[in-house]
Amino acid sequence: MITVNDLVANYDFTKLSAETLNRTIENAYSCDLLSWVMAKGKHNTAWITVQTHNNILAVAALLDFACVIIPEGIKVDTEIIEKANEQEIILLSTPLDAYHIFKILYEAGIE
């Protein structure tokens, strides 16, 4: 089992939004087609996406994701970070690619 805080404290992840990081990650998913994510996503998912617009926040809130991870050092506009804070959605950034993110999560017991 791993929490969002574990990612930030022990790996190369940076918190962009949210005050509390104690959400438990139960599964992981990577996809950039929002309708597909809405159909396949689950509660407490760590969602990896290169998308950085408002609609990712809507999907994350709808499905109550543990966090949204923006890989490969992709920049996120301040406006999106502020809206994520308002909605209490955890956004993380990392220079890692999706493969290495999944590797960390798999080694932590997420399948």
TrEMBL record:
Q: Gene3D superfamilies in the record, alphabetically? A: HprK N-terminal domain-like (3.40.1390.20)
Checking InterPro entries in the record gives: DRTGG, Ser_kin/Pase_Hpr-like_N_sf
Could you tell me which Pfam families the record lists for this protein?
A: DRTGG
Extent of the signal sequence: none
The protein's matches in SUPFAM superfamilies, at most eight in alphabetical order, are given as:
HprK N-terminal domain-like
Q: Which residues form the DRTGG domain?
A: 55-106
- Name of the protein described by the UniProt record: AraC family transcriptional regulator
Species name:
Fusibacter paucivorans
